[in-house]
């Protein structure tokens, strides 16, 4: 799957819905045993959740948007397929969550590309299931420090921390992703799938059990004037940085 929503593959409601439907179709296709996720937008894997979806909208919209974020994660993290992220650009916040939700992450070895859960930098808090997914990849201590600081790790540091599994030259990224996919697909699906479920079930079940509460929390949090102000200021900062 190639993300192609210029300029920065931000995860809008429409993008998330299309991504989830795409994953569902592949999941239901018995001929498809694995998916490599990458980007067709140069230098950007995904800029994370579309901030404009969380600014100045109705309570109903926030609820619909958050449900779509949850749905995407439940499908990807809970997928029976082998999932490989070929991270060919920067990948903050929700973009990082997509990579973390895959079975294996390969990143282009460009130190200008960074990845991480930087929510704290926006004055917002990564929800528990973003945190759980992060902890399951890098461990508690690294996740704790990185989340509190809202760190975006340049590719070499991301590899050192175990946030990505390996770095390769950008031109070799897809070749490497295909080789990793072949290695994972060489195992019988049944054993691999049951093992994956065993490793991820507790974290998935936690969101399923608290899904409506999580939506309510998001709506309450994002509707606060202080949070709206932080998000607006962050968007302005992005625009100023550009000019
Ligand atoms: C409340 C509960 C928890 C909610 C959880 C949220 C998780 C999230 O995912 S929040 C989103 C976090 N994302 C970011 O912090 C990334 C912000 N973007 C960037 O750092 C940079 O844009 C980039 C490194 C991804 C790319 O840099 P580049 O110089 O190539 O492009 P820009 O000129 O900065 O951006 C182009 C264009 O796109 C707009 N934009 C960028 N990111 C977002 C975004 N996440 N949502 C909406 N719009 C975004 C940016 O403002 C520019 O717009 P204009 O062309 O109109 O100026």
From TrEMBL:
Q: A Pfam family name for this chain?
A: ECH_1
Task: Write down the EC number.
Answer: 5.3.3.8
Known catalytic reactions? (3Z)-dodecenoyl-CoA = (2E)-dodecenoyl-CoA; (3Z)-octenoyl-CoA = (2E)-octenoyl-CoA; (3Z)-decenoyl-CoA = (2E)-decenoyl-CoA; (3Z)-hexenoyl-CoA = (2E)-hexenoyl-CoA
Query: Which superkingdom, per the lineage?
Result: Eukaryota
Query: Where are the coiled-coil regions?
Result: none
Classification via PROSITE patterns: ENOYL_COA_HYDRATASE
Instruction: Give the pathway listed in the UniProt entry for this protein.
Output: Lipid metabolism; fatty acid beta-oxidation
Q: Where in the cell is it found?
A: Mitochondrion matrix
Family statement: Belongs to the enoyl-CoA hydratase/isomerase family.
Q: What is this protein called?
A: Enoyl-CoA delta isomerase 1, mitochondrial
- Its source organism is Cyanistes caeruleus
The UniProt gene name for this protein comes to: ECI1
């Amino acid at each position: 799957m190639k993300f192609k929503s210029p300029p920065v593959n931000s995860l809008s409601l429409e993008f998330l819905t299309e991504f989830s439907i795409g994953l569902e179709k592949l999941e239901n296709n018995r001929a498809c045993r694995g998916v490599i996720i990458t980007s067709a937008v140069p230098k950007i894997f995904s800029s994370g959740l579309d901030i404009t979806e969380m600014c100045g909208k109705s309570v109903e919209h926030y609820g619909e948007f958050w449900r779509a974020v949850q749905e995407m994660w439940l499908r990807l993290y809970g997928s029976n397929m082998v999932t490989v992220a070929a991270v060919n650009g920067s990948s903050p916040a929700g973009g990082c969550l997509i990579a973390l939700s895959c079975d294996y992450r390969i990143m282009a070895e460009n130190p200008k590309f960074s990845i991480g859960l930087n929510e704290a930098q926006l004055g917002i808090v990564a929800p528990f299931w973003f945190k759980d997914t992060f902890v399951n990849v890098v461990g508690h201590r690294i996740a704790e420090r990185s989340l509190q600081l809202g760190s975006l790790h340049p590719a070499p540091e991301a590899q050192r921390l175990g946030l990505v599994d390996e770095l390769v030259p950008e031109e070799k990224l897809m070749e490497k992703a295909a080789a990793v996919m072949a290695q994972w697909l060489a195992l019988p699906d049944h054993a691999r799938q049951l093992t994956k479920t065993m490793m991820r079930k507790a974290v998935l079940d936690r969101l399923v059990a608290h899904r409506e509460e999580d939506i309510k929390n998001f709506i309450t949090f994002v509707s606060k004037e202080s949070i709206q102000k932080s998000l607006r200021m962050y968007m302005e900062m992005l625009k100023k940085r550009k000019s």
